[in-house]
Specification:
Elements: H1 10-17, E1 38-42, E2 47-55, H2 62-76, E3 80-90, H3 96-113, E4 116-124, E5 132-141, E6 157-161, H4 166-175, H5 177-184, H6 186-193, H7 202-211, E7 215-218, H8 223-235, E8 238-242, H9 250-259, E9 272-276, H10 279-288, E10 293-300, E11 305-308, E12 313-315, H11 323-330
Parallel strand pairs: 3-4, 8-11
Antiparallel strand pairs: 1-2, 2-5, 3-5, 6-9, 6-10, 7-9, 8-10, 11-12
Helix pairs in contact: 2-3, 2-7, 4-6, 4-9, 5-6
């Protein structure tokens, strides 16, 4: 069986993860699971929370994306970021200026987010044909504030912060800059590209953890629908998502329409899905801290994952390759 480009399908991954039983060491509080992006260690005092992620679907601003995505995973567990380890794998022929630009991006983001770059590895290798960035992030959390993806309960509101597909919109604006500028104009495309400045969910993650929520999951590959499926799968309950309640920026609507891409299945770092029994109160707290938040659905009994709009109801299925890979095929990159 040949695997498609992108994340390994969740049904296959679930079988692979069955090999990992309960933790061996007493310090380890978690084990690998679908939708679980972080691990937690009890090292006497604050919990040490770690996560790791590669960036393979973007070229421009890869350093900015890489750090934010890793820190977002920590925030989804309610953990405050402390430091990161970075592995850079560059293909043969890479110019020094390219690596220098990448490191400058990482320095700027790490300084803004107040985290240390602790070390890592940098290499030019023929094992890759495009730049690959892999980041391990380390954070800390008090045990009562540690949040998992599997804690959602029936009756919980499902809250989405900010807008769907902001990250994907920005990547597409960089990828199709010439085509989109011709169609929509330079000002519009620059506005879309600048959405990369809003892809951190650390602030809302820490606020929600202190408030006390049942689960959190940052919205990455597979978009809002993929994240909703993962929350439902991890918790063992159903979800209902109301399509008309999902906030989408005009830049996203127009670019996705132009490229025939589904924004609800497009990579969406910068958005967080949060489940809580008191969605209205959490939205007020987030709004008071200048974070847009919308109630887009609820957790249900049973095992159905549904997308509901005025015209019909469809099942939310296992996430396939992110819509970004469809765009890369258009560009002839894969």
């Amino acid at each position: 069986m040949k695997l498609e480009v992108g994340k390994i399908p969740n049904d296959i991954l679930e079988k692979l993860l069955d090999e990992f039983t309960d933790p061996i060491r007493p310090e380890v509080l978690t084990k690998p699971g679908i939708g679980e992006d972080c691990a937690a260690l009890d090292l006497s005092g604050d919990l040490c929370v770690v996560t790791t992620d590669p960036i393979t679907g973007a070229d421009d601003e890869i350093g900015t994306l890489g750090i934010h995505i890793a820190l977002n995973d920590l925030a989804s567990a309610g953990a405050e970021p402390v430091g990161i380890l970075v592995t850079i794998l560059a293909p043969p022929g890479t110019e020094l200026e390219t690596v220098e630009r990448l490191t400058k991006q990482m320095k700027a983001v790490s300084a803004a987010m107040k985290v240390d770059i602790l070390g890592g590895h940098t290499e030019v290798t023929d094992a890759v044909n495009r730049m690959v960035l892999s980041i391990t992030a380390i954070g800390k959390s008090r045990s009562k504030e540690l949040i998992s993806t599997n804690g959602a309960k029936p009756g919980d509101s499902i809250i989405l912060t900010k807008y769907a597909a902001c990250e994907g919109t920005a990547i597409l604006a960089w990828m199709f800059e010439k085509e989109l500028t011709k169609e929509f104009g330079e000002e519009f495309v620059n506005s879309a590209k600048n959405l990369l400045n809003n892809i951190s969910v650390v602030k809302e993650g820490l606020l929600a953890a202190r408030y006390g929520v049942s689960s959190m999951h940052d919205v990455t590959e597979g978009g809002v629908l993929g994240a909703a499926w993962e929350i439902g799968t991890a918790s063992g309950y159903g979800v209902e998502i109301y399509k008309d309640r999902i906030p989408i920026l005009e830049e996203t609507r127009r670019i996705c329409s132009f490229l025939s891409i589904d924004p609800l299945k497009l990579i969406s770092s910068g958005s967080m899905l949060i489940t809580t029994p008191n969605g209205e109160e959490l939205i007020k707290i987030l709004n008071r801290n200048d974070i847009k938040a919308s109630e887009i659905g609820r957790v249900t009994f049973g095992r159905e994952f549904l997308l509901i709009d005025e015209e019909n109801t469809v099942k939310i299925t296992i996430p396939e390759s992110d819509e970004l890979y469809k765009a890369r095929k258009m560009k002839g990159e894969i």
